[in-house]
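Input chain follows. Return structure tokens only.
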Amino acid sequence: MTIEEYADILNVDLIIRRYCNQDNRYMAKIENAEVMQDGCLIGMYGNGKTAFDAINDYVKQIRGKRIAIDSYTPKRGEFDVPKNLTGV
């Protein structure tokens, strides 16, 4: 399953940003998602020289983990990220 398909299933947005003031670095992450690890919520995001690199970096970081979306709201949801999740 690709990250785009996974985001569609969860009905969330995959955010990609380019930071022109940081050597045109790209960042990618699922909007309002945090990784649940060792009893903590950890904000993770992918980095790269291109949008594709950032997405693929993010996929490597969250693959096989549990994420929480909208953690501090009544809409909070917890989801397992597939171990076979792929990037672009």
